[in-house]
Amino acid sequence: MYCTLVTTVHYVLCRFMLLENYHSAVINSITEGGMALWSPVQQKISCVFIVSVQQEPSTKRINQPYSVIALDKLNHAAEMAGVERARCTEKVDGTCCLVALDKGRPELWARLDRKLNKQAEKRFRKFQLGSKPSTAFECDVDRDFRVVPDCWKPANGVQFVNGQLQPDENGHILGWVPVCSSARQYVWHNMAVAREIGKALVLRPEAGRLILSAEPLTQLLDQTLELIGTHVNNNPYGLGRPEQPLHVLVPHCAFGVTSPPQLSLSQLRSWFETPEGQVEGLVWCCANGELFKVNRHHVGLSWPLNTARLAEQPVLISVSFPTTDFVPNSIFAGLARLDKQTLPSIHHIRW
């Protein structure tokens, strides 16, 4: 099955996708006054600005030979979605997860994108950097993509053509895999879940502080969250330590921004230098469910920082289950011993 990817002047687009479907996150959200409080992040979120691919090494990803820079012009899809009236939230630096049913039981799922194999990846990168507008990159889904586990499932919004899954503008087929397996790469995901009692460690804002609690997986069904912690993305928030790692889940769009900046590059750069701006980036949650983002790398600023906003707030530990419910050396048992304590910051959590 062959698929075709095409480029435009500023960024790569998929010929076979409807752009509005691709750029939108699937909405299944709790609302307040018509505004989404959270939205499942099933697709990659587009930048709120038009972006340009520069042929210079990325400051965000090691070994990426190109950078993605924001131009001072709003993404047309963002304008159409009313982004200037949207709820602005903090973009949290972690790895994307989903809570969904697996064999009839609520389970945590990790993002696992089906990617091009090495040979096809080389061809695609050369195509990205060297192709002219409207030229095409052709690939065969069965031949050019890596094999995924049998338990893998495609993300909502992935397109099918003639019964075949189609990749996105980056050459990926987005998807999920349950983390209940013993696979080593999911050991940190599993630290945030206690399947015996069907709960997960969740960090949320509450009344001017953070609250860390063990929430039922049933109440998190169909939500997406970021896993953050000691061994995720070099731990920009300083959670735990190597000898006592800590990993928790943060719901998407949970942390609202009190005084968001205006949508211009100069205003954003200035805002990122304020105390409230000590974040990886911003996500705008539009009334129709579409999400748009910008991160510090888009505007030429560095991340991580010495002090991140999320890591400088007091945190209440609310894990009130009897210690007998947990294995003696589990993180849940340790946090239960800290129940009802308010700590100066998440740096101070020692379980």
Helix content: 10-25%
* Computed structural class: alpha+beta
Strand order within the widest beta sheet:
12-15-10-9-19-20
The termini sit apart by 52 Å
**Number of extended strands:** 24
Low-confidence stretches: 6-39
Please state roughly what percent of the residues sit in beta strands, choosing from under 5%, 5-15%, 15-25%, 25-35%, 35-45% or over 45%.
Answer: 25-35%
Determine Rg (CA atoms, Å).
Answer: 21 Å
Question: Major β-sheet, in short?
Answer: 6 strands, antiparallel
The average pLDDT score comes to 84
Number of helices: 7
The backbone outline, from C-alpha atoms, is globular
Commentary on this structure:
There is one protein chain. The chain has a domain at 95-107 and 180-255 and 308-348. It is globular and about 60 Å long. It has 351 residues and is α+β, with helices and mostly antiparallel strands. The chain has helices at residues 19-23, 76-80, 118-130, 141-144, 187-191, 265-272, 331-336; strands at residues 2-7, 12-14, 31-32, 35-36, 46-47, 49-54, 67-74, 87-91, 95-102, 105-111, 136-140, 153-154, 160-161, 164-165, 175-178, 193-194, 199-206, 209-216, 224-229, 247-251, 281-285, 291-295, 315-318, 342-343. The longest helix has 13 residues, at 118-130. Strand 13 and strand 14 form a beta hairpin. The strands form 7 sheets. Strands 12-15-10-9-19-20 form a 6-stranded antiparallel β-sheet. It starts with a strand and ends in an 8-residue tail after the last strand.
